[in-house]
Amino acid sequence: MAASCVALLFLSLFLPLLLLGGWKRWQRGRAARHVVVVVLGDVGRSPRMQYHALSLAKCGFSVTLLGFCNSKPHNELLESDRIQIVKLTEFQSLAVGPRVLRYGIKVVFQAVYLLWKLMWQEPSTYIFLQNPPGLPSISVCWLVGCLCGSKLVIDWHNYGYSIMGLVHGVTHPIVLLAKWYEKLFGRLSHLNLCVTNAMREDLAENWRIRAVTLYDKPASFFKETPLDLQHELFMKLGRTHSLFRACLEPSDPTTERSAFTERDAQTRVVTRLCRRPALLVSSTSWTEDEDFSILLAALEKFEQVASDGDSLPSLVCVITGRGPLKEHYTRLISQKRFQRIQVCTPWLEAEDYPLLLGSADLGVCLHKSSSGLDLPMKVVDMFGCCLPVCAVNFKCLHELVKHGENGLVFEDAEELASQLQMLLSKFPDPAGKLNQFRKNLRESEQLRWDESWQRTVLPLVMDS
């Protein structure tokens, strides 16, 4: 009797899925080329998946992009008539009960919800999935692919279990379960992409997964910002952040002046201020894999040296992003008593972020991969804007940052402080090391995302 009830329950749950899947398989043969891109995270903070959607649309596919919509995606995505964004609802963990139980319940609800959303989308040839987070999305997308005849493509940005290990510890049962899950379901995908050769080799040796390396490349809108647009950006940011405003008002009240630039009232020509501060930019998701205490300690050392002479400029440090540790570091920043350094932590609109990178003098990256196998996309974007970078070193960073050529790598706050002093000495001297790095970036042949995607991914998709 009990077995009959279980069988009846199983049929009542899965028979509708099988019927719907069969109908979608029949529909898919008659439908135009369609791809579903899944991000179990914020679409606006998932640039690589946005680029996948845009590249697929440019190649004639219609695209449905599923993800959380906590921040605005780039305008190019919103304006495409081939891309539809489907908003997913983010489930919060229960407030009571053991952590493992709360997490388990959240995963089950997410799995059922994602399955329901995917099954009601237009039949698709491919499902492109970002990993991490892969729990529960890999298994759900695989199941939908089996039911509907879609091929699963996993884009490995990192390993989900290694990120969980930063919080829980590498031997925690949840972390070990997540690792087993990623290995098991990762092997069931039709195609696999990854972000570094080091990850490709690790997937092959330890996971028995064959992947193709698709390096992150800057999109076309990451480029040096023209001076007039720099001025407009600084004036806009100055409305909400005082460090972008001019310290001294111009003698002519009709002249527009920011902390870095001014526009002549008569000619409307924009020029840089001679005694302007240096603009340092860092972007972050404010998570455990980025230790911003390193930057704060380096800034303290920089301030000590800058106070002893005139060879170093004042410094404006802009740290952009959202994340769980932002409040913690904002509190630490507020406790500093800098005299020559100003720090702000704005959340920028999608269109303003490339403009800021293209206007900055130096970028700093504190991303230290949880697995040691992924690369910081923020550095890719900075290089697209010809912005020299100082980046904290880890296992495969050499695949992106060539020390002494397009930037510098450092191990600790002491080394970063020395690099800041060296790069900003006698700023803005055009003969300085900072401008030499920028010149190297301008002269290097930088492949853009569209070109890289069409060379790497498009042949795989078309051949399949």
Report what the structure shows.
Residues 6-12 have low confidence and may be disordered. The chain has 2 domains: 32-42 and 61-94 and 104-217 and 450-463, 3-Layer(aba) Sandwich (Rossmann fold); 227-443, 3-Layer(aba) Sandwich (Rossmann fold). The chain starts with a helix and ends with a helix. The longest helix is centred in the N-terminal third of the chain and has 29 residues, at 2-30. The chain has helices at 2-30, 47-58, 75-79, 99-119, 137-148, 160-168, 173-186, 197-206, 227-238, 293-306, 326-334, 352-357, 377-384, 413-424, 433-443, 449-463; strands spanning 34-42, 62-68, 83-87, 126-131, 151-156, 191-194, 212-213, 256-257, 261-263, 270-272, 278-283, 315-320, 341-344, 362-365, 389-392, 407-410. It contains 16 helices and 16 strands. With 464 residues, the chain is of the alpha/beta class. Helices cover 43% and strands 16% of the residues. The protein is globular. Helix 13 links the parallel strand 14 and strand 15 (389-392). Helix 6 (160-168) packs antiparallel against helix 7 (173-186). A 7-stranded parallel β-sheet has the order 3-2-1-4-5-6-7.
